[in-house]
Amino acid sequence: MDARFDLHANPVAGKLFKHFNAAGRVISESTLPAATQELVKLRASQINGCAFCTDMHSKDALHHGETQTRLNLVAVWREATVFSDAERAALELTEEATRIADAAGGVPDEVWANAAKHYDEDQLTALIALIALINAYNRANVIVQQPAGGYVPGMFG
C-alpha cells in the first residue's frame, strides 16, 4: 500500500511538521508523565483509525519500557485494572476531546474536573496540547492513507 501523497517529500509539509515537531518537544519536555503521553497518543490514534500513528506510538511506548499488557488494554481502559486513576483521567479526556464533534457542548465538566484533580496547570496544558497535536497528526496521516507497519523507534530523529 502506498500513501496518496508523500508528506515527507513535500516542502510545505516539511515546514509545517517542523513546527508540529517543535510543539511535540515542548510537550515531551513537560512534567506530564512520559507513560501518560504515550497512552494518550495511542488512544487518540486508535479512535481516529490512524494506523501509522498507532504503529508508531505502540512501538515507541514498548521501546521506552511500557508493558505489552497495558498497550493491549488501552482501547478498553475502562474495564482494565492496569491504569492509575491519573492515567484513566487522561484517557477519558483524550476520548472526549478526540470525539468532540460527537458530544453537544464539548468535553463534559465532570471529565475536565477529573483530569484537573490529577494534573497541575502545566500538566493540563501539556495534556490539552498533546491531544490537539496527536489529533492533527492523525488526521493528516488518515487523509493521505499513510501505510503502517514499517516504523522503527527513533527513525525520525
TrEMBL record:
InterPro entries given in the database record: AhpD-like, AhpD_core, CMD-like
Sequence ranges assigned to domain Carboxymuconolactone decarboxylase-like in this UniProt record: 22-96
UniProt-recorded Gene Ontology molecular function terms: peroxiredoxin activity
Cited Pfam families: CMD
Tree of life domain: Bacteria
NCBIfam families attached to this UniProt entry: ahpD_dom
Name of this chain's protein: Alkyl hydroperoxide reductase AhpD
Lineage of the species this protein comes from: Bacteria, Bacillati, Actinomycetota, Actinomycetes, Kitasatosporales
